[in-house]
Amino acid sequence: MAEIIVDKNKCNGCGRCVKLCPFNQIKIVDDLAIIDAGCTMCGVCQESCPAGAILIKRERLTTEDTSNYRGVWVFIEQYQGRIKPISLELLSKAKELAQRLNQELAAVLVGDDVSHLIKELTSYEIHKIYLVENEVLKRYTTDAYTYTLISLVSQYKPNILLIGATNTGRDLAPRVAARLRVGLTADCTDLDITEEGYLLQTRPAFGGNIMAQILCKYTRPQMATVRPNVFKKSVPCSNSQSPEIIKIEAKLNPLSIRTKIIEVVKEVSEVTNLEEADIIVSAGRGLGSPDNLYLVRDLANILGAAVGGSRAIIDAGWLPHHQQVGQSGKTVAPELYIACGISGAIQHLVGMQTSKRIIAINKDPEAPIFKVATLGIVGDLFKVIPLLIEDLKKVKNK
Ligand SMILES: Cc1cc2nc3c(=O)[nH]c(=O)nc-3n(C[C@H](O)[C@H](O)[C@H](O)COP(=O)(O)OP(=O)(O)OC[C@H]3O[C@@H](n4cnc5c(N)ncnc54)[C@H](O)[C@@H]3O)c2cc1C
Ligand code: SF4
Ligand code: SF4
Known about the structure:
The protein is of the alpha/beta class. It has helices at residues 16-20, 44-48, 63-66, 85-101, 117-122, 142-156, 167-180, 293-303, 311-315, 346-349, 369-372, 381-397; strands at residues 2-6, 26-29, 32-35, 54-58, 72-76, 78-79, 82-83, 105-111, 128-133, 160-164, 184-188, 190-193, 199-205, 210-214, 222-226, 244-249, 279-283, 306-309, 336-340, 357-362, 375-378. The protein folds into 3 domains: 2-58, Alpha-Beta Plaits (2-Layer Sandwich); 63-256, Rossmann fold, CATH 3.40.50; 274-397, 3-Layer(aba) Sandwich (Rossmann fold), CATH 3.40.50. The chain is built from 12 helices and 21 strands. It binds flavin-adenine dinucleotide (FAD) and iron/sulfur cluster (2 copies).
């Protein structure tokens, strides 16, 4: 429960809050700021008032209050009009959670000219789709998307809100949680419902040495981000009922959006997005030296693959951290994963063992990586990889 108060003795009517309220909910009457009923308690005015005249009082929710929050929501991340795979992964888990709670499953679709995606979402047994379209939402900006989400949450009060732990989600979710003053469990590896009906959020803690289980009992929505490739994608259902579409007008104050995207420049890099790559060639300490990385790069190039690595070589500085696969790196599930000189420690396996096919090259026949490999090559990678490259070139040139 929250309440917003303007201290008459402190407010001098300067109007700063009026300009900055993202939802245009403040007016000045007789040199005093008056807050309108559409206030979402986003807190922007409180932070920006130079006189400290605005106070938002928040109290812990009682069990009765929390029962007013219903539904499991998934933020649908889309880029250039295409739904990101993480959103479909979240939908499959969210459907399960919603069924356990006997609550509705809803998708939140935000952007500009994205209504064509409703057709695709319709096949995932969603009860409601909240659609917000506006040209200021064409490209992701922290402010515009944060204000849009908090306005939806304040109005429709979901019980659970799930967001992908992608670059966008990792920026958006903490902002939304902080503005709503609710908890957020980032980078979950599992989600469940407890007997009491709380969202049980599991994530690695203390550098991955323990799995922490987290509950948010006193705030709503219960918010979590989940890494890509942790859950299986939702499967389209041909006889899915049409969801209710709730179109919401984005009434955003342009002055409250502090960033403008002038240009999008694609980074020229050997790594596309590891989490979305179809083929990954990964390097381990078995390469002996960073000078030998050319072997995995050449193999990756010929296969059109992304390059990943074990933590051993990332820690040694051979590759940047965003290329690390595993528990403290990225979780991947490509069609093909080729592990070159990687032993297969459990922390590496948890990040790649759901790959569709795994080829392991290792000179030690006892290496644990062979336990998860579809195809194991026991041999010296300095001999095996050049032979593979040679053969692949022949196949390509045919
Ligand atoms: C909390 C925690 C989190 C962690 N998170 C991660 C993580 O996210 N990702 C991760 O990868 N690790 C992680 N680790 C580290 C993990 O435990 C291992 O230490 C690491 O994965 C080992 O990397 P590696 O397989 O490259 O090296 P090694 O274990 O040293 O294996 C090298 C392999 O190369 C083989 N080899 C050597 N020479 C050749 C050759 N010429 N030809 C073929 N094979 C050869 C060897 O037989 C050996 O199997 C974590 C550890 C902890 C404690
Ligand atoms: S910014 Fe503060 S002092 Fe200025 S009008 Fe708003 S509440 Fe009053
Ligand atoms: S919506 Fe936000 S900025 Fe506007 S009055 Fe409410 S708390 Fe203040």
